[in-house]
Specification:
Strand content: 15-25%
Structural class: alpha/beta
CATH superfamily of the largest domain: Metal-dependent hydrolases
CATH class of the largest domain: Alpha Beta
Number of helices: 13
Largest sheet: 8 strands, parallel
CATH topology of the largest domain: TIM Barrel
CATH architecture of the largest domain: Alpha-Beta Barrel
Distance between the termini: 6 Å
Order of helices and strands: EHEEEEEHHEHEHEHEHEHEHHEHHEHE
Radius of gyration: 22 Å
Helix content: 25-40%
Number of domains: 2
Shape: globular
């Protein structure tokens, strides 16, 4: 039997029997539909190009999910799809950094464009409307000049702007931010693309001063911040705490996204509660990156017995926005995968023991992810047709199987399934 198809008399759009996660609806009262667990269910209609509403449905055995397009908060398009030309790569974060640094000998314009284009095409196929890519930056005097990868990704952002918004963040050394000429270059480049100031925070000397400098630059020029922070399981890593304290002390009100925060796993009891309360007070968001952190962190000579994630459940319980990101794809940091937020969320469910109702987790790759990047949130009841997806699945558990097909809502009428 053919499934019911979307029809478009004039500019009206209607899809029979859909389910929308309640976590992705800003105002359920005005949206309509009947409550069915974690979902609202009904016939979706957009009249004359307006915002969607749900009408009473003729229930079918196979409802479909309607979701906003996804936001990928943390990838590295300059590094992706490079692993196959490397010698056998394995080991911890340091080993991955060294191996990827050696691979930069191959980073020609043609190579960067081909690999990054492949990554962007994967993101678009996965249903993304926006993504943030970090870009490795040079050190010392070289930091005053944008690297080739930055120029290539700027061009690709324009080439693909009709399909995806590519947000860029230079991945800098905190020490380099103290150089006025480097800071001037970074501000000019970031402002040009509407990106974020990114920096790597692990165990460098004089972290408080470096973090303070990053905040001063961001505050003075009105740009967002994005840190790789505490990407390790060693004791004593306190970068996340320093960032949170600096945010509170400076009153910085722009977006702050902190990736990794793996060392939170070392904390428990009152120490963990104090750290989480500070993070919650600061207003920053945390992005967990399960594929890369599971692969690199907690390495021993045998099978690892620690997970490299941050305290996802505890942070969420304290209302800290936690995002899920894909991070590295087929490079020295993670040898497998493709750019797909849905697959990353599914892995996070397993790795972090995120329990049902799984429909409550969609904001981690949609509304909360967009807000963490300083972008407008897209709720289903406020969305345009161009911003919505139809998933051939009756539930989130089915939809998180990435073999389940996603379709742009606006083209769904062209599909017939027997």
């Amino acid at each position: 039997m053919n499934k019911p198809l979307l029809t478009q008399p004039s500019r009206d759009v209607r899809i029979a029997d859909v389910k929308v996660p309640r976590s992705l609806v800003r105002s359920a009262t005005g949206f309509g539909g009947i409550v069915e667990g974690a979902y609202l269910r009904g016939d979706l209609i957009c009249k004359n190009g307006g915002s969607p509403r749900l009408l009473p449905a003729s229930l079918s055995p196979a409802p479909k999910l309607v979701l906003p397009r996804f936001t990928e908060a943390h990838v590295h398009l300059d590094k992706c799809h490079s692993v196959d030309r490397m010698p056998a790569v394995g080991g911890n974060l340091r080993a991955a950094i060294d191996a990827q640094s050696q691979d930069k000998a191959f980073w020609s314009e043609e190579d960067l464009r081909a690999r990054a284009t492949r990554g962007l095409q994967e993101l678009i196929s996965a249903g993304c409307k926006a993504a943030r890519s970090h870009v490795d930056w040079s050190h010392g005097e070289g930091a005053r000049t944008p690297p080739l990868a930055w120029h290539i990704l700027k061009e690709l952002a324009q080439d693909f702007r009709d399909h995806i918004t590519l947000n860029l963040a230079p991945l800098t050394s905190l020490e380099d931010l103290a150089d006025p000429q480097t800071a001037k270059t970074l501000v000019r480049e970031i402002s040009c693309v509407g990106g974020a100031l990114g920096s790597f925070v692990l165990d460098q000397p004089n972290l408080p001063k470096g973090i303070q400098t990053a905040f001063e630059i961001a505050m003075h020029h009105g740009i967002a911040l994005d840190f790789h922070v505490d990407e390790g399981l060693a004791d004593g890593l306190d970068g996340l705490e320093l960032i949170a304290r600096t945010a509170i002390e400076t009153g910085f009100d722009g977006p702050i996204l902190c990736g990794h925060a793996c060392s939170m796993m070392n904390l428990s009891g009152d120490a963990m509660k104090r750290r989480i309360n500070l993070v919650a007070q600061s207003g920053l968001s945390v992005v967990t990156l399960p594929s890369t952190n599971l692969y690199l962190q907690g390495r021993t000579e045998g099978t690892p017995d620690r997970r490299g994630l941050t305290r996802v459940r505890e942070l969420r319980a304290s209302s800290v926005p936690v995002i899920v990101g894909t991070d590295n794809v087929r490079d020295a940091f993670c040898p497998l995968g493709r750019h797909n937020p849905r697959a990353s969320l599914a892995l996070a469910v397993l790795a972090a023991h995120l329990d049902p109702p799984l429909a409550d987790l969609w904001p981690m790759i949609t509304t909360d992810a967009a807000q963490a990047l300083g972008m407008a949130q897209t709720f289903v009841d406020e969305a345009s047709i161009d911003d919505l997806l139809v998933c051939d699945a009756p539930s989130t558990t089915s939809a998180l199987d990435d073999s389940t097909q996603l379709y742009p809502l606006k083209t769904y009428a062209d599909r017939t399934v027997a």
